[in-house]
Design goal:
The structure is a single chain. By secondary structure, this protein is of the alpha+beta class. The chain has 3 domains: 66 residues, no CATH class; 101 residues, no CATH class; 96 residues, no CATH class. It is 48% helix and 11% strand. A 5-stranded mixed beta sheet has the order 2-1-4-5-3. A hairpin with a 5-residue loop joins strand 1 and strand 2. Helix 6 packs antiparallel against helix 7. The longest helix is centred in the middle third of the chain and has 25 residues. The chain is flat. The two termini are 33 Å apart. The N terminus and C terminus are likely disordered.
Length: 317
């Protein structure tokens, strides 16, 4: 795969400034205007404790990365794409455990924020990623076992929910075996968590089958231009899947069976029915996503909406 593990599909926009991370010294962007010029510091926007330096023409600005990303979508994309280091699982795990044990809140919060950015509870955010886990987690899927344990340690239920979901995509033997830590010991789930994953996986696979049946049996679009043909094509979708032998069902509600996806793509539906099927697929998958809390027995905290009303954390309407 050419993209980093669990990499976002989004790409950073380029701008007309250069940025240097003061902690790592790595240049984020280079501009032709700044190249070869004698640089001078801006007297007003030069903070000695700033953590990123910007160069616009021949002027340098030392500011704060977090504030910059918050107020500028362009810089937010650039900083995420270029400056995020590929931390290993062991580095993140050590940061979480040390921060938790010795009450080092900055270390703990930064490590958890990093983890949660790759395990979002929002369906649409989750769909943005191609793999399970941060770029430095190799293999990313297996390290979800450790993320479950870190989530238990810190009481991060949203992280726990998503890490358990990833564990349901792991081969049963590998799930029970866990993985080897750097010191040679093994990181494993508790017996209760293994049992929870087995039970949840069974339910999730059943839901996956139901999604296929519901998607291939919707009413035809009201704007359908070939009702008899489209009705027959939808019937053939399920027959094509059955003919594949291996359905390749997915425990992750956001991912469809390869055989089912190929059958839908091959269906000769009119444009209106194709659009309807796509909407139906998304609707069914989001409905399944909303069942995750109940399936895993985890209640996510409520977050206040802009109007001051409670809303489910990470669950789209």
């Amino acid at each position: 795969m050419s993209l980093p593990v669990r990499a976002t599909r989004k790409r950073a926009r380029t701008g007309s400034v250069a940025a240097t991370d003061n902690d790592s010294g790595e240049q984020v962007a280079v501009t032709s205007e700044a190249a070869g010029m004698s640089l001078k510091r801006d007297e007003e926007l030069w903070y000695e404790d700033g953590n990123i330096t910007l160069v616009a023409r021949d002027v340098e600005f030392c500011v704060f990365k977090g504030i910059l990303a918050k107020h500028s979508p362009v810089f937010k994309d650039i900083l995420l794409f270029y400056s995020e280091p590929p931390y290993s699982y062991h580095t993140i795990s050590a940061s979480v455990r040390l921060g938790h044990k010795y009450q080092m809140s900055d270390l703990l919060d930064n490590a958890l924020t990093y983890l949660k950015s790759y395990y979002p509870t929002n369906y649409d955010d989750w769909k943005e990623f191609l793999e399970y886990g941060p770029p430095g987690f190799d293999p990313p899927r297996t390290y979800a076992i450790g993320v479950v344990n870190l989530a238990h340690l810190t009481g991060e239920v949203d992280l726990l929910l998503m890490a358990l979901l990833v564990c349901c995509t792991i081969d049963s033997a590998d799930l029970a075996r866990g993985f080897e830590r750097e010191d040679g010991s093994r990181e494993q789930l508790t017996v209760d968590d293994i049992g929870l994953c087995y039970a949840a996986k069974t339910r999730l696979l059943t839901i996956s089958v139901k999604i296929m049946l519901r998607v291939r049996r919707p009413e035809l679009s009201a704007a359908c231009t070939a009702k008899q043909n489209c009705s027959e094509e939808l019937r053939l979708v399920l027959m094509a899947v059955q003919g594949e032998g291996e359905l390749d069902l997915k425990a992750d509600p956001s991912v469809e069976s390869k055989a089912f996806g190929l059958a839908l793509d091959a269906a000769k539906l009119c444009k209106s029915c194709h659009t309807m099927v796509d909407k139906c697929t998304t609707s069914e998958r989001k409905a399944a996503w909303e069942q995750l809390e109940e399936i895993f027995g985890i209640e996510l905290p409520k977050v206040a909406s802009e109007e001051g009303q409670g809303a489910e954390n990470g669950v789209p309407p």
